[in-house]
Amino acid sequence: MSTSRAMPWFLLAGVVLFALNLRGPIVAIAPVIGQIRDDLHLSAATAGLLTSLPVLCFALATPVAAALIGRAGPERAVLISLAGILVGTLIRAQGGFAVAVIGTVVIGVAITIGNVVVPVVVRRDFPPARVGIVTGVYTATLNVGAMLTSLGTAPLADWLGWRAAITAWAVLIVVAIIVWGQAAGWRRSILGDRGPALDVLDAPTPHSASWRSLTAWLLMLAFGGQAFSYYGITTWLPTILHDLQGLDARSAGASSAVFQILAVVGALGVPLLAGRWRPGSVVALVGVLWLAMPVGLLVNPSLWPLWSVLGGAAQGGGITIVFIIIVRMSRSDDQARGMSAFVQGGGYLLAATGPTIVGAVHEVSDGWSAPLLVVAGSVLALIAFGLIAAARVEARHP
């Protein structure tokens, strides 16, 4: 195998290791959130900020991330992102709540850079025939990273304490920095710099036409319902299972891992269904499976493994079908980029409130029935707005 042909595989390894660190640092809080609350004397709503703040950064820091990538280039942007995640991870566990917030914001901004730069790297450095596969691997790896932290944080906390447990994942970040540094150096030595690939960053974001499109607003609300549900459940699922089923922290963390890893099934399965079904039918299926999780936990929490499987597959498919609809309704790459930015920006802004609202409702109601109804309501928003948006797209682009 020639060096130039081997290079994409080494770059793929770099992308995979990068992706492992783009959701795990957020999810790592969930298995030990009870210990954090007790140690720092936090309310449930306040503790939820440690998960919701990075999501808020996804919504607000995207323009800054795009500008940085345009100035520094993709290779350096990836390293800046990883370095930021590393610094934020180290800061977050060192002091009280204020220090934890500072570290969390650093992590959120750094991950936002990663969210923006990965598509640029994939489009630029992989053959067109493999872009879809690489994107699928990247998306699946996001959930693998979340699964690893869900499984491993509670046992580490039992052994080392919660501060060391959420810091220990810095090892993965260091490995990613080393591998990516080697991959980027290898690429430059073979291909040099290719500036034209960065023209994606020159397009206005969000696209002005998106603000005038009813379908774009519907998709943004549908994406917001999906993401609100995801981050609301992700943050509080271990605590819910501890309170309702008496699971210890380790077992509850394992349940979260099931929820995260099943997203791979949805992310890979929905594109296959979308090739045969109308988008509205896929939205309906995803919504029903998603709804099974909060409703199932409310009605029969003892069947939590089943609800985690159904909800996990649905949350992976929910994001995918929204972006399939965006692609179908877009007439150009520029419109697709603008629409995607509009939908994600508004949707993540709504999602950032999820952990805090769910925690606050739990605090006020002193139980989990009302919070689970809130999550169910956000899933219904995904279904309702998603179905209307899909119908509009089907009517115009049959």
Distance between the termini: 44 Å
Q: What is the CATH T-level topology of the largest domain?
A: Growth Hormone, Chain: A
pLDDT below 50 for ≥5 consecutive residues: which ranges?
194-208
| Class based on secondary structure composition and strand pairing | mainly alpha
CATH C-level class of the largest domain:
Mainly Alpha
Instruction: Supply the number of structural domains.
Output: 2
Residue-averaged pLDDT, rounded? 82
- Beta strands, count: 0
Major β-sheet annotation: none
Q: Report helical residue fraction.
A: over 70%
Our estimate of the beta-strand percent is under 5%
What spatial form do the alpha-carbon principal axes imply? globular
The run of helices and strands is: HHHHHHHHHHHHHHHHHHH
CATH superfamily of the largest domain: MFS general substrate transporter like domains
Quickly give the CATH architecture of the largest domain: Up-down Bundle
Task: Please tally the helical runs, counting DSSP H or I stretches of 4 or more residues.
Answer: 19
Radius of gyration equals: 20 Å
